[in-house]
Amino acid sequence: MSWKPLRVLTPRSILPALAVLLVLVAGAAAHANKPVPFGDRVAEPGGADASPVNAQSLSAADLELKVGPGLEAYNRATGDHAWSYRREGATALYLSMAGENAVVVWDDGLVTSVRPGDHEVRWHRAVPGLADWLRGDGEPGADKRTEEQRKQLATERAAAALHTVQQTAPWVAVVTPNLTMGFRDADGDLRYNSKPAGNCVYDPMRTVGTDFAVLVPRSCTNSTGQPVSGGISGYRLDSTGWQLSAGPAVSLKALDGRRVLISDGPIVGPKVFDTKAAAPESACGSPSEPFAAVRPQGTCAAPEATGQP
Fold first, then answer.
1. Sign of the CA dihedral 36, 39, 41, 47?
2. What is the pTM for the complete model shown?
3. Are 103 and 112 in contact (CB under 8 A)?
4. Range 54-60 contact pairs with CB under 8 angstroms and sequence separation of 24 or more
5. What digits encode the pLDDT tens for the residues 75-119?
């Protein structure tokens, strides 16, 4: 066996090892300071990070949820601030429950789902064009709005854009003038996206939702910019959607968890559409009543009570 004495480390020989060490330390520091994806931060009061391990978990029924500047959770029994979910550089505008989960619209066009029971952020989805529509930049009179008016507009539009459908498997619809999208709440999976055809736009402010579907009116114009007949797009996840013809001023009103009143002017007259059966409800006494897919709700008055022969 040959024997060699230990080599004495000179400054020159130390430099390469030291350079490697510095690179590793710098990489570790960069990793530690790496921004959380989407700027998420879930924290307990006082700023400490909240997790199911270091914070008491409360169910959605035990919590009162509010928005602004993030999603804030309060203990219903005590009124104490339980936790907050915030995103760096973004403001929460509106929330709606999808089953046990809270779905939030943010002013930067992101939609997120949070499980209140363990304050876990479940998924994030960006909706193209949503942020621009919420701000309303470039619209007539936009430059004259005060900061408070801009905030109010963004909040109203966020509430109109977000619809949660409360089925056995809840889902989420987001409506903007140029795009509507549907997400499965279980995992945030995109189930459909739809753009209006021709010279048409969707109208989120007139959109209504039920426990089964979301109905979105379309406003259309002709080549000269004059309003013309549009329509209503109905969306579901458990079956195919549908299209209904409608005038330019049609209005929708949810009557209950499945029926929507469609008012389309004095000539056509109002009608009720059943979103569970995906069919119009027949009117009392109409010739089609015995053969209709959806009979009138409740009991129709007797002919003598209405003065009819």
1. positive
2. 0.78
3. yes
4. 55/82, 55/83, 55/119, 56/82, 57/117, 57/118, 57/119, 58/82, 58/116, 58/117, 59/100, 59/116, 59/117, 60/97, 60/100, 60/101, 60/102, 60/116, 60/117
5. 999 999 999 999 999 999 999 999 999 999 999 999 999 999 888
